[in-house]
Design brief:
It is built from 17 helices and 11 strands. With 502 residues, it is an alpha/beta fold. A hairpin with a 7-residue loop joins β9 and β10. α9 packs across α10. It is flat, with a radius of gyration of 35 Å. InterPro entries: ThiF/MoeB/HesA, ThiF_NAD_FAD-bd, Ubiquitin-activating_enz.
Length: 502
């Protein structure tokens, strides 16, 4: 190697090449070093030219929403209202004026009732059409401590149903829109605005006391199923009084709106999904809800699917504002969310003040469920006897609540075969496996029956089904047409999905 270098350096041509390479490296390094030094000098010069930002500098002025000061500029009326509200919250507001403003409520609720309302703390989760009307009504009625929770902003399409939003509020967080407008009506009220999404993970903080006072009531005005279930489950488990608004979308008949227990709410897809999810979490009743019994029909509004061109763009989930939020178009008549919201506020006012109220009760069908449970018990005993099992004292792992759930939620109170709604009973759909009775515990015999194995029929249909399928050699496909079989399979598949929550 050394001899090769020696011969190379002895060549004049090689010496010239070496000199050129070394010179190029030196010149390049010098250029790069100069450019780097010049960049450093310019950055230092730019930093030196930036003045210190004082407290009065325009860059420090942002709005209460965290936006640039010119984004949501306050009008003169807003400025006056904000100043008045700030003084009122400090006590610089004549109480006689407040009582005069609340005079009609005062004579209705009495001084004691109004005092309860004025000292109440209410949390409203969801500040759209329903929540905004509920909040406005509560503030106008005397509630002085309100926490508003909503992640969303006012849009142009919000204006057909929002209680207080104006064109100037488009793009503003809903919680601040409500606060800003209601401060012009009830300046003494205290609003704790949370521009955030409610979630199970943050529930402890979002539903926490205000200045040491636990919430007297929580209002659920959420239209997302996951958040709604999380809120209602948290309130039920932590014994917080709550009322929930079910779906106002696609509804138009105000005479069909009721207030009742969640276990009795019907004819509403949102209510059905909420009930089933809550039941899987161990909450089956005890939550008042506002719901509509209006049924869909020809010519009525329906939940609109996304246009085909939107599906063609790719993942539909990416079109939502947030993950798992609906992206379909929900037709809403602007009056209906207002009626739902006012009904919610009315219930909260009556409950807090102790004013007597007795809503139209839902029909009790407990006696019918007991009869169906007894008939199912008899069917299982007869089946066990036909298989040679000891059937006396056979137990089935179902309760009256389970029966009610299957009848109302899964089969909607109608026979899966004929659609009739009278003389109903539950029965196995398929012939059970050989070992369908558990004898492992001495002196105790249990049927291994599962809810997903049952169908709803009339008594006459069940008698024939028991004879030919459960005790005979036929299968359901031999007795029923394809439509009935497909419906049963769909119901069982759906119930199997919900079974994992139990």
């Amino acid at each position: 190697m050394s001899s090769w270098i020696s011969r190379a350096t002895e060549s004049r041509h090689a010496q010239l090449i070496t000199t050129a390479v070394v010179s190029g490296v030196v010149v390049g390094s010098a250029i790069l070093g100069f450019q780097k030094a010049r960049r450093m000098y310019k950055v230092a010069e730019l930093k030196a030219s930036i003045p210190d930002v004082g407290g009065e500098h325009h860059a420090t002025r942002i709005t209460e929403y965290g936006a640039a000061s010119g984004a949501f500029a306050h009008s003169n009326e807003d400025e006056r209202s904000m100043a008045l509200a700030a003084r009122a919250r400090k006590g610089d507001y004549d109480d006689d004026l407040i009582l005069e403003q609340l005079a009609r409520n005062r004579v209705f609720l009495t001084d004691d009732g109004l005092e309860k309302l004025r000292t109440a703390f209410v949390i409203v989760v969801g500040c759209g059409g329903v929540g905004s009307h509920a909040t406005a009504s509560l503030a106008r009625s005397g509630v002085t401590k309100l926490r508003l929770i909503d992640f969303d902003q006012v849009t142009l399409s919000s204006l057909n149903r929002h209680a207080v939003a104006t064109l100037a509020d488009v793009g503003t967080p809903k919680v601040h829109t409500i606060r800003r407008r209601l401060e012009q009506i009830t300046p003494w009220a205290r609003f704790d605005c949370r521009n955030e999404l409610f979630s199970e993970d943050s529930a402890d903080i979002q539903l926490a006391p205000m200045n040491g006072q636990a919430p007297d009531f929580v209002i659920d005005a959420i239209d997302n199923i996951d958040s709604k279930v999380a809120l209602l489950n948290y309130c039920a488990k932590n014994k917080l009084r709550v009322i929930s608004s079910m779906g106002a979308g696609c509804k138009s008949d105000p005479t069909k709106i009721f207030i009742g227990d969640i276990s009795a709410s019907t004819d509403d897809p949102l209510s059905k999904s909420t009930r089933r999810r809550l039941r899987a979490l161990g909450v089956k009743d005890g939550i008042p809800v506002v719901f509509s019994t209006e049924k869909p029909g020809p010519g009525k509004a329906e939940l609109l699917p996304l246009p085909e061109e939107e599906f063609a763009k790719g993942s539909v989930g990416e079109l939502g504002v947030l993950p798992d939020f609906r992206v379909r178009i929900l037709p809403v008549l602007g009056t209906m969310p207002a009626i739902f919201g006012l009904a919610v506020a009315n219930h909260v006012i009556l409950e807090i003040t102790g004013y007597p109220h007795d809503y139209l009760p839902a029909k009790s069908r407990d006696k019918m469920y007991d009869g169906i449970l007894g008939a199912l018990q008899g069917s299982e005993e007869r089946l066990a006897k036909s298989r040679g099992y000891e059937f006396q004292g056979l137990r089935i792992p179902l309760t009256q609540d389970d029966v009610g759930y299957l009848v109302e939620e899964v089969y909607h109170g109608r026979s899966v075969v004929s659609g009739l709604s009278t003389r109903l009973c539950l029965i196995r759909w398929n012939k059970p496996v050989e070992d369908f009775v558990d004898n492992r515990t001495p002196g105790q015999r249990n049927s291994l029956l599962q809810m997903k194995e049952l169908v709803l029929m009339t008594k006459e249909e069940a008698t024939k089904h028991e004879k030919e399928v459960l005790k005979g050699d036929s299968v359901p496909e031999d007795l029923y047409d394809r439509k009935v079989v497909d419906v049963v399979r769909l119901k069982m598949k759906e119930e199997e999905k919900y079974e994992r929550f139990r």
